[in-house]
């Protein structure tokens, strides 16, 4: 092919490329223009773990947004402050994490993960949950999670809100220990299923109350957890078969290597 032919082909190729780029630019401009004009068409809420926990509902989430953020309907999607919406929802005590995003149809989508409680504190007629991180949050009427109940002289100042982590050093130490205790019980399923209540006595000793049987276990302070549960297991595997079920009303495992039955 002649040199002039090559030049012509190059010119035509460059022109075609320019035309393609122009079309893409126009398309992108239209897309941006269209997207910027999209209005929020509604709110869609997904509670990820609603089968396990029921602390917040779709109606709750919409109410939080309406009260603390304001109107979202018919608002341009580009003007929605998604980070602020997430911050509002994350500040709710039962919410572990939220995610807000918009889809091309203008829908504001909210995905919520709730906190997962491992125990419930019952104190002065009020109930409070705590998760594995020691975060305390209040119960809500009609919303329950079936976890172990801890009552009695609970050494925590839950205040009116009962929200957040323990503040004082002594409270944090106790909460860390009781959290470790309940976590151990959950990890060893037999104890998580068998022990349904823990009563805190005035001296700080724990009394374990099983689902079945008349005996109550005097556990003492929430320390040396593994050794004490080993003694409780020995009671069930050695003493009960030899002495009979429901013979004793109390089983004391506070002392190293000793089981004192009364």
CATH class of the largest domain: Alpha Beta
Question: Strand order across the biggest sheet?
Answer: 6-5-4-7-8-9-10-11-12
The fraction of residues in strands falls at 15-25%
* Total strands: 12
Radius of gyration: 30 Å
How many helical elements? 6
The main sheet comes to:
9 strands, mixed
| Secondary-structure element series | HEHHEEEEEEHHEEEHEE
Shape descriptor: elongated
Spans of at least 5 consecutive residues with low confidence: 22-35
Q: Which CATH architecture of the largest domain would you pick?
A: 3-Layer(aba) Sandwich
Q: Work out the helicity level.
A: 25-40%
Instruction: Specify the structural class.
Output: alpha/beta
**Kindly, what is the distance between the CA atoms of the first and last residues, rounded to a whole number of angstroms?**
109 Å
Write a brief structural summary.
The chain is of the alpha/beta class.
Give the helices and strands, then pairings.
Elements: H1 3-36, E1 42-47, H2 58-68, H3 82-90, E2 95-102, E3 107-114, E4 117-123, E5 126-131, E6 136-138, E7 148-152, H4 169-187, H5 189-194, E8 195-200, E9 206-210, E10 216-220, H6 225-243, E11 250-252, E12 260-261
Parallel strand pairs: 1-3, 4-7, 7-8, 10-11
Antiparallel strand pairs: 2-3, 4-5, 5-6, 8-9, 9-10, 11-12
Characterization of this structure:
By secondary structure, this protein is an alpha/beta fold. The protein folds into two domains: 42-114, Ubiquitin-like (UB roll) (Roll); 117-261, Rossmann fold, CATH 3.40.50.11690. It has helices at 3-36, 58-68, 82-90, 169-187, 189-194, 225-243; strands at residues 42-47, 95-102, 107-114, 117-123, 126-131, 136-138, 148-152, 195-200, 206-210, 216-220, 250-252, 260-261. Strands 6-5-4-7-8-9-10-11-12 form a nine-stranded mixed β-sheet. Strand 4 and strand 5 form a beta hairpin. The model is unreliable at 22-35 (pLDDT under 50).
């Amino acid at each position: 092919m002649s040199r002039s032919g090559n030049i012509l082909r190059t010119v035509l190729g460059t022109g075609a490329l320019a035309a393609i780029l122009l079309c893409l630019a126009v398309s992108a401009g239209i897309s941006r223009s269209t997207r910027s004009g999209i209005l929020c068409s509604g709110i869609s809420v997904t509670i990820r773990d609603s089968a396990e926990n029921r602390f917040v509902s779709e109606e709750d989430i919409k109410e939080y947004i309406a009260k603390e953020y304001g109107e979202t309907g018919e608002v341009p999607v580009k003007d929605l402050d998604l980070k602020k919406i997430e911050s509002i929802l994350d500040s709710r005590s039962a919410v572990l994490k939220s995610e807000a995003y918009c889809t091309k149809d203008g829908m504001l989508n909210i995905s919520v993960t709730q906190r997962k409680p491992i125990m419930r504190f019952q104190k002065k007629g009020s109930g409070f949950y705590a998760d594995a991180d020691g975060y305390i949050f209040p119960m809500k009427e009609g919303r329950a999670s079936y976890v172990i109940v801890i009552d009695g002289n609970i050494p925590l100042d839950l205040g009116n809100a009962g929200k957040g982590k323990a503040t004082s050093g002594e409270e944090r130490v106790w909460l860390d220990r009781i959290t470790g205790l309940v976590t151990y019980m959950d990890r060893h399923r037999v104890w998580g299923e068998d022990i349904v209540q823990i009563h805190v006595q005035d001296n700080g000793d724990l009394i374990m109350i099983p689902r079945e049987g008349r005996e109550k276990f005097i556990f003492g302070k929430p320390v040396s957890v593994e050794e004490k549960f080993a003694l409780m297991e020995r009671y069930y595997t050695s003493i009960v078969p030899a002495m009979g079920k429901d013979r004793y009303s109390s089983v004391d495992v506070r002392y190293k290597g000793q089981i004192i039955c009364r």
